[in-house]
Design a protein that fits this description.
heterodimer; A: about 350 residues; Rossmann fold; about 20% strand; B: about 375 residues; alpha/beta; 12 helices; about 40% helix
Amino acid sequence: MTVMTFRQALHDTLRAEMLRDENVFLMGEEIGVFEGSYKITAGLLAEFGEKRVRDTPIAEEGFTGAAIGAAMLGLRPVVEIMTINFTLLALDQIVNHAAKIYGMFGGQATVPLVIRTPGGGGQQLGATHSQNIELYYAFVPGLKVVAPSTPADAKALLLAAIRDDDPVLFLENLALYNTKGEVPDDDTPGEIGKAAVTREGSDITLIGYSRMAHVASQVAEQLAQSDGLDIEVVDLRSLRPLDRETIIASVKKTHAAVVLEDDWLTYGIGAEVAASISDGAFDYLDAPVRRVAMAEVPLPYSKSLESAALPSVDDVIQAVYQTLDAVGNRRERIGKES
Amino acid sequence: MSDQTRTPRKTSGRSEAGTRARSVSAPETPTDDGERLIDFYRQMIFIRRFEERAARGYTQALIGGYCHLNLGEEAAVVGLMAAMSPTDYLFTNYREHGYAITRGIDANRVMAELYGRVDGVSKGWGGSMHMFDITHRLLGGYGIVGGQIPLATGAALAIDYRGGDEIVMCTMGDGTTNVGAFHESLNIAALWNLPIVYVIINNQLGMGTTVEKSSAEPELYKRGSAYRIASERVNGLDPLAVADAATRAVDSARVGKPFLLEVVTERLRGHSVVDPAKYRSAEEVAGLKAHDPVHTLAERLLSEGLLDADALAKLDEEATARSDEAAAFAEASAFPDVSTLFDYTYATPVPNDSRRLPGQPLFEPAPMPESEASE
């Protein structure tokens, strides 16, 4: 184990995979000479050269599509799209091509492609640069979407994504790049499609991914200290496929859930999780599933407005209290212990 | 008519320009123009009869979805395909049946794909717009206008990355030159000296919109100049002219100089089988018939004494018989089994991949938990 930042874990994993497999190469805007907008690819151009660390023109549709085409011929491109907002420029290539090519041609060509891209608000970047639109991709069969929250998972899931024969959208988050954690030294890939129970508890389940998995852990820790609550935390890690079994198993144990998400509430990933809980654990619920999500506005620049719009630790704590109140009320009404 | 030529700027491991050019030999084609013309006619009349048979299958409701035909584009198709080596890659759009059969893919399997059958080139998953055959290096018909252009550019990147000798040909319609993907891709190909030929099949209509009405530079080949890509316009009703121009384009691509070739042709019928093309005048339709490349070539073969009427009729009969045979094969082929519905979502198996049919619940109905049921 080595303690390192999320950024370092991504950098080291990219480098290790490029050393391991000469078919792995990087493409994206400003990833070479500029060393990446968020410096994930720092030093890699100097080490591997222009062939394997390709600075592209500002042409998301063109270079993402080119990466898909290269993947069809057996290369394993890792594309960096500067932020998830800019993936919209490549939407046709990702949704109509990367996600379709394996199925549409009856399994004759695979697309072993990784698209790394960070989302995240809270940086005062305004409405077009602060979105969390991974939902658009998690909606699409044929794509895999992973959203790690720790440096260890970042390494494990990036290894898995690069070695996978399907297109994988690898979601990063601006607020997580400098977070630190223990990272295993060995190169064992993680498992796409699996959530993790990152903290065991019996009172209520908090479900999140990426930055909101951190917020969930923070809330669980804080309420354990202040109120003696025993909160379980599920880190989704994979948005497509979605690991409903782990979610349901947890809710069957705790009988209550709050879903945390950094995107808009209506039609969001939390809606899918809540509907899944209704499908799989309806009879176990002691309170309605609560969702904590971003205010439904284009995110403003001004700090006062931006902070109010984004879900905070305090927002989640309020939702936990209210949900536990509802649980208590219901249990009182039916005379049940817990 | 080349606009620009330039010395490729090497960025990666490709062998030196010039030396790689000749390492893949051209397909065996008769050197004598007469024999080439006869060969082209055989391929063109086959496309003509195959497409007519497909149209019939469509009106019989044996073919579904959209169905775009190469009628009128036969000379363009066979001329282009003659310039490619078997190891070269082809990306096309949704008007691609003729390319598939001329590339050498079994016509039975092309027709079976139209019929949505398990023996289709894409196993019934693609249909008319999405023909694919890895063996013949047809890397797709694509239904989204311009969607194939970045992909083809990336395939050329992969060839360049490995220092290979193949080239990519990427065809598109005239209307496609207005999408962003066209411009982004040409820019990338030129920057990176990729081995690719972009071909505009200018049949002068994007659905019902003329080139003049949709393109501010209606001489479409000139658009290459914005990227310093050499370009040329050729008469797409003459298969020899197309083949010669395409060979120049392919030779250029093989030394890392991407090329833009505009093939001016015509679309004999509507945009798709169901389009009556009422936006065309009677005069225009009469002109189409007069320029019909299949008839024109037949007349030329007769007038130059290369084939007599009987020989022409025999080729026609063969093409008709072969098309009928393909239709019979397609109709006899099975529909894909519903049990295979989830076989092609992911190439690498993944936990929690959904295999739920529309009427099935996410979770089987379960009894109430005991603690609640007992209350």
